[in-house]
Amino acid sequence: MQNWQHGVWLLLGCATLSGQGSDPLPADRTTGAATISAQDLRIWLTKLTSPEFAGRGTGQEGFRKAAEMMRAHFQASGLQPGFGKDYFQQVPWKQVVPDPAKWAFDLSVQGGKKAHRVEMKHVHGSLVRGLTARGRPYVCATTDVTDLPLEGSDLGDSPLFVLVNDRNKLEQRARDRALRNLARAAKDAKASMVVVVWDVAYHASAPLSGISYPALNPAARGRVMRGATTVLLDRKRFGEMLAAVGTTTEAVARHSKPQQLDGELHLDIQTSLADAPAFNVAAVLPGSDEKLASEYVIVGCHLDHLGRRGATYFPGADDDGSGSVGLMAISRAFAKNAQKPRRSLMFVAFCGEEMGLIGSGWFARNPPVPLEKVAGELQIDMIGRDEENERRNERAEDNRNSLHLVGTKKLSPALHDLCMRLNGRAKFDLEFDEENVFGRSDHFNFARQGVPIAFFFTGFHRDYHRPTDTVEKINFPKLARVARYVYDIAFELAQSDTRPLVDADLWEKMRGKARETPAAGLSK
């Protein structure tokens, strides 16, 4: 789920007994429901969160592998491609690629012919663009990277080396934040770039690469890096560079304010742009009714997570690995069920959710079927944990049976009533939008178009957007129950004689809507 600021709590409840089991589903959907198992969900999620997939960052190789895993699952289940003859919908995404053949990182005595070169493989960090710099660099040192005295400095578009002796022993998140702040401060001080010599950060990062970013908005690339271009170097190689111009790290460590080095730096980093892996993955189960088969019920998740950041990858077991394997289970259940529903089903794993709902936005603007033909979109995002909130003294063990039903009250009372009625057999303790997450997952791009939506979410926890969001913390029996509940709702939507409409008064109040009249039509 995208990390936007939390809003006002709107706590509502539905009185069911915590821990109660689900009632059997109607006979027309039981064979499919029986295929949804906690064991399969565990097997799939263990694979999806493994180092092989490296956190599934959109534009990264790990995401490509995850998209291929989802495609292979759809195909093996006997489902048809969702985009004509293809399971993939390419979303415009770019990757900055450094060119090792066009590389110079040389420091020499002024006027000297022999330079000390640092090879590209020894430089770490992420590039937004190429860079060329030549001249005398500045150097300074700090024991507190959060308080670097650059204010008022004018480095005249010269490179800056910062030697860090971290007395605070910052953890990774604090280090990342400190580096971003340092980059902004260096830009304000008119540094052309920053080379940070910080062994802890260096060894927690990865060799130099380029960032990937959505190409839909020309400003997206610039927003990724608001400060000076920053790379990381280890202390050993920094010492070797300094030796080439007759000084040492110990000498640099004595200067808390930038001092110009008696040497000449020649820096040339050339980059190119390439397409990056960013796909929505979709499959279709055709409906059985001649008249209604042209209408669709969409079940969606987001396949991406935060990917790899330096040497660390974010597994994203709950966010949204849980929804991804839930989609795998639901799609297979429909494919294996003896009776096919009247309307068609479309199963979509979106990319780019963590970057701002990019993939679902592209899908909604370039849909493979008219949105007027979509009876509803059911979104599953973070459905595998038990909510925790220390500020509200809310413990996981108090929420074993809780599930948030989000967004149904915003647009379509008919879809809300359907979800509430079918919870009579699912028996969850339903809460609504106490976390104010209506605009924070992919369903929102359908709601903006006037498609009835329901968003299913088991709540936040202390591992949200951390490397500790791991598979062993998932409540797999609960995940299986949520998947069966969503399967039941999707089946009911696909079977019904009528489809839910959008309430006219609610549509009038809808913020962020993208059209004058809703795709689903108005109920009054």
Helices and strands in order:
Layout: H1 30-33, H2 38-48, H3 61-76, E1 80-81, E2 88-90, E3 93-108, E4 115-117, E5 126-127, E6 131-135, E7 138-142, E8 158-164, H4 172-188, E9 191-197, H5 199-203, E10 209-210, E11 212-214, H6 220-224, E12 229-233, H7 235-243, H8 249-252, E13 259-260, E14 264-275, E15 279-285, E16 296-302, E17 308-309, E18 312-313, H9 317-336, E19 344-350, H10 358-365, E20 374-380, E21 402-406, H11 408-411, H12 413-426, E22 429-431, H13 443-447, E23 453-457, H14 476-495, H15 504-509
Parallel strand pairs: 5-10, 7-8, 8-9, 9-12, 16-19, 16-20, 20-23, 21-22
Antiparallel strand pairs: 1-15, 2-15, 3-4, 3-11, 3-14, 6-14, 7-13, 15-19, 17-18, 21-23
Overview of the molecule:
A hairpin with a 6-residue loop joins β3 and β4 (115-117). Strands 1, 2, 15, 16, 19, 20, 21, 22 and 23 form a 9-stranded mixed sheet that branches. This protein has 2 domains: 27-91 and 278-509, 3-Layer(aba) Sandwich (Aminopeptidase), CATH 3.40.630; 94-274, 3-Layer(bba) Sandwich (Glucose Oxidase, domain 1), CATH 3.50.30. It has 524 residues and is α/β, with parallel strands linked by helices. The chain has 15 helices and 23 strands. Residues 4-19 have low confidence and may be disordered.
